[in-house]
Design the sequence.
């Protein structure tokens, strides 16, 4: 990998060297490194269209890194990665995609991730998006995530996109069996004329399943965001979705938290708030010696932390 | 030393021009603890905002150690050593107590040091240091954190706008002790508190009474306080609670 690719890798996966444990690094459509471990097997799909990650039942405290780097203007790809997480395991999966585009053609990565989370398994999934480069070509990321959770499993998802992605359409779907718990934390900031859509469809199918989908976002300049989260409760279950946004400059946000109850025992809650930074917050930080711009930065940093 | 010279503040409302402050002049010398009291709506909070730079006066001058700061903004005044604790502290999603203390101190303060400031306002540091300053904190907790941020700054003058407002009686009793302690350690800085509370007035060096936008009385505590007892400008503690004290 070259210096640009290495730097992007550090941005999206906090990786400065070869990671510990299992990994697969994809750069401009080809594998730039792969390692399986005794418990985690990574195999390529035919034709380079993605990978299969199989985690043995009972694998505990291990991690998988699967970052993707694009540095070639005009490069477009769709990748299908499947994760089979064995019963009773407890693992961390770090994905992430960074695009460096200094050309005038669009660069695009559509990553479709499917997670099959076994009984009583626990997964922490971290996905970070990042874009840079001063070319006119757009940096486009369209992640699709499908989650199938078996009984008693738990999944925590952290989705972060803070800088440099021009257009993104994220679609996340989840099916939860009895006692399964899903927690999603999304952090999003858009600049200039960027466009970001985020759609969630979560089906709570099993008794006692629960989902918590929380998004915090900041829309700056002329950017646009759309948040559309639908929780469907089909049995006795708990669902909560929340969208909390700061709007600045000429940014625009459409927030649509939705609930669908198909059982009298489904307990579902949604919350949404969009507003500018409160003047009082700026004043408070300015009385502590910050300039208005520094105060704004602190407020946004805290909000997106 | 802070000096207000013939400060006035007018606003436009449907009935025309209304004077909120009218020709207000006073000086806060170093090493002084000054309490501003008077009826509600008399202009006390506006004085605090004018000192902090949140509100610009429509007339008059503000001087700090002889320098005219009337035209300076909030940030510049803060850098000169003016601190301001708001009547209604602000909440911030995601910002933790330790972050705010670090911003206040203007440096990367150690956790141990921030704990020190929290302990001084009677908060168990271990419990609060990483709490978010959000809706999960009570009014009393927010007030204490607000005061801790002022303590963490090296201020020339600290202005507190009704530290007793919006907090329960128990929290207030212990806040009084914080101010008593500040009075003892004030040294070459000064404190200006807006308050109706008799117990705060009792530790003042000087008392300023503001009513209808004007200063009606200004002098040493010994002289002013006896005139105020029994009026809304000096609210005593609850009699029954006091007995059990």
Sequence:
């Amino acid at each position: 990998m070259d210096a640009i690719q290495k730097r992007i890798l550090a941005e999206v996966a906090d990786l400065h060297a070869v990671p510990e444990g299992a990994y697969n690094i994809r750069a401009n459509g080809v594998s730039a490194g792969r390692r399986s471990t005794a418990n985690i097997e990574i195999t390529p799909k035919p034709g380079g269209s993605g990978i299969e990650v199989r985690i043995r039942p009972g694998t505990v405290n291990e991690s998988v890194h699967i970052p993707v780097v694009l540095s070639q203007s005009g490069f477009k790809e769709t990748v299908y990665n499947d994760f089979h997480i064995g019963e009773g395991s407890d693992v961390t999966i770090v994905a992430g995609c960074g695009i460096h585009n200094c050309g005038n053609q669009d660069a695009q990565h559509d990553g479709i991730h499917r997670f099959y989370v076994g009984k009583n398994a626990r997964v922490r999934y971290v996905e970070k998006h990042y874009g840079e480069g001063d070319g006119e070509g757009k940096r486009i990321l369209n992640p699709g995530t499908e989650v199938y959770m078996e009984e008693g499993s738990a999944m925590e998802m952290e989705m972060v996109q803070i800088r440099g992605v021009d257009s993104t359409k994220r679609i996340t779907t989840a099916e939860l069996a009895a006692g399964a718990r899903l927690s999603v934390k999304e952090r999003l900031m858009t600049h200039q004329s960027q466009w970001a859509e985020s759609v969630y469809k979560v089906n709570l199918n099993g008794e006692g399943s629960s989902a918590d989908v929380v998004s915090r976002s900041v829309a700056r300049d002329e950017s646009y965001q759309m948040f559309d989260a639908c929780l469907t409760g089909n049995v006795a279950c708990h669902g909560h979705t929340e969208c909390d946004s700061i709007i600045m400059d000429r940014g625009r946000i459409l927030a649509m938290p939705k609930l669908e109850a198909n059982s009298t025992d489904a307990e579902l809650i949604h919350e949404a708030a969009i507003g500018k930074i409160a003047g009082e917050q700026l004043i408070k930080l300015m009385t502590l010696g910050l300039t208005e711009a520094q105060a704004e930065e602190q407020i946004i940093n805290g909000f997106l932390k | 030393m802070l000096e207000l010279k013939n400060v006035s503040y007018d606003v436009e409302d449907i009935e025309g021009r209304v004077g909120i402050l009218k020709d207000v002049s006073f000086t806060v010398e170093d090493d002084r603890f000054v309490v501003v009291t008077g009826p509600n709506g008399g202009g006390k909070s506006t004085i605090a905002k004018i000192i902090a730079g949140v509100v610009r006066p429509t007339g008059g001058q503000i001087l700090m150690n002889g320098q005219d700061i009337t035209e300076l903004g909030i940030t510049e005044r803060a850098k000169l050593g003016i601190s301001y604790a708001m009547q209604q502290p602000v909440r911030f999603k995601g910002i933790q107590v330790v972050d705010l203390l670090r911003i206040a101190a203007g440096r990367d303060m150690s956790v141990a040091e921030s704990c020190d400031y929290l302990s001084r306002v009677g908060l168990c540091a271990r419990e609060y240091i990483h709490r978010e300053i959000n809706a999960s904190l009570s009014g009393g907790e927010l007030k204490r954190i607000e005061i801790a941020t002022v303590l963490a700054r090296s201020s020339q003058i600290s202005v507190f706008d009704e530290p007793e407002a919006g907090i329960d009686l128990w929290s207030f009793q212990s806040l009084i002790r914080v101010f008593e302690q500040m009075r003892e350690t004030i040294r070459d800085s000064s404190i200006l508190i807006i308050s109706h509370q008799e117990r705060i007035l009792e530790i003042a060096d000087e008392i300023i009474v503001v009513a209808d936008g004007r200063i009606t009385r200004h002098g040493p505590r010994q002289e002013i306080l006896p005139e105020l007892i029994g009026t809304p400008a000096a609210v005593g503690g609850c009699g029954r609670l006091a007995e059990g004290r």
Remarks:
- Chain A has one domain: 3-278.
- Residues 3-278 of chain A form one domain.
